[in-house]
Amino acid sequence: MLAPKKTKYRKWQSGRRSPAHLAKPDTRGITVAFGAFGLKAMTQARLSSNQIESARRALARSAGKTAKVWVRVFPDRPVTNKAAGVRMGSGKGDVVGYVMEVRPGRVIFEVDGTTEAMAREALRKAGTKLPMKVRVVERA
């Protein structure tokens, strides 16, 4: 799974609980830059490294051997969790994984080197693995 090789700080602070700032459209990574077709997020969500890898595998398998796939997101935010049955207090839990907070408008995957029909079907299949609404977009 995807995870940063080295981080300056092992745990991040929790951040704002209100999802209002996450619902605003993203301003970076909103256009198809590398491939011919892309998968764009329409709602906000936290993508875990497992979800990204699962979608990438589905995309690579159904796009064909000649297709080139780009992953435009990387999970760098650590998520902590305290073990079950542990009492409150005594510090923050251990890091259990990494996530990427995706806002609406962000392009998550890009594909090139395959037909339009195959690319759209492959991106649709990859989108079913993600916990948000997505749309297949073309390079403008």
What is the CATH top level name of the domain at 29-79 and 94-138? Alpha Beta
CATH homologous superfamily descriptor of the domain at 29-79 and 94-138: Ribosomal protein L16/L10
**What is the 3D form?**
elongated
Strand content: 25-35%
Provide an overview of this structure.
With 140 residues, this protein is an alpha+beta fold. It has a domain at 29-79 and 94-138: Aldehyde Oxidoreductase, domain 3 (Alpha-Beta Complex). The protein has helices at 20-23, 49-63, 116-127, and strands at 37-41, 45-48, 68-71, 77-81, 94-102, 107-112, 134-138. The strands form 2 sheets. It has a 4-stranded antiparallel sheet with strand order 3-6-1-7, covered by helices on one side. It has a 3-stranded antiparallel sheet with strand order 2-5-4. The longest helix is centred in the middle third of the chain and has 15 residues, at 49-63. The chain is elongated.
